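Changelog note: in this version the structure field was regenerated for every chain. One regenerated record is shown below for reference.
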Amino acid sequence: MPQIKRSLLVTFAFAVALTVVSAAPPASAHDIGRLLHDGGDLPEVRRLARLHRELHVLLDRYEALEARAGRAWLEATQVAREVAGAERASEAAEARLEERIRTAYQVGPAGQLEALLGAPSITDLALIAEYLSRTVAVDDSSLGEALIAEAVVTARRGRAEGARAGVEARLDRLRSMLALLQAKVDEVTELAERAHLGAEIAEQQARVAAAVARSGSWDRGVIGYGEDQRHLLALLGPTGGRTCDTPEGLVETGQAFEGYASWYGWEFGGQPTATGAIFDPRLFTAANRWLPFGTFLRVRHGDRCAIVLINDRGPFGREERVIDLSQASAEYLGVGVSWVHAEILLPSESIGA
């Protein structure tokens, strides 16, 4: 089993905060003026006011970049799905070409002549000739179809790689800006405490805390794009996730959240998830907007529980929905669009690594 990154635990802690921390509105110019008015010409207060404004501008820039990164992530996921569709079309075209080549080889010129000579009537002869021309002849169109399909796959794979690289560049910039935000807010907090003005910076502290929490949405946790996830799915245990017990290899965190669960099924079957894994609605997996990939949830509904692996992003469009379950796990729980209680579990190696 690959080594699970220790950083998952830290990312998880940030992500959990998203369920309880909401971004506060920016401090107004009036608030900044009041800092100066209350503190007069004290150097520390003037410095606090300056840093307060700088942090404000940085937060606005960060949130704008975060929004663009989110759109880029969704675009990259869509391109990955287009690649999967092109690959299926290419495989089908190649299979048709191989079948024609195989049939032409098996029948051969002698077989074709025998079939034509054995026709009982002119009508049958015409039908046999048409069949042979369509199924036995390896014409330019079948070969061209296969070549075009393969070219489409190559082009879309290149586009997908470029999209993923673009997302990673945005995420790297976000991480750098987030580190700067945290350093700034630490400095502002220290100055505010000295000046007994802690209440004045509470809104900015909340905005930075929310930004840190949302960072879990962009980090892939322990799952790299396209990485084999069988070692993680094995942690669902012998029941495949159909249990209220904590499977061996997972540990409880004591953290939980509630909200509406929805589900998705075969209409997305065979398409890539946000981690690059092909979605199989028969597996106990789920999508969530903020938890790091590789997190597990014990989802309770009524008297049943399901352990699911977070390996996709969603649900989108309905903020009250906190999790999108695979069809199998939703059917096991009896979930349509239903209120659920979700407890967060982590692989034990992420604690002890």
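Spot check on this record: The chain has a mean pLDDT of 76. Strands lie at 250-264, 285-287, 296-301, 304-312, 321-326, 338-347.
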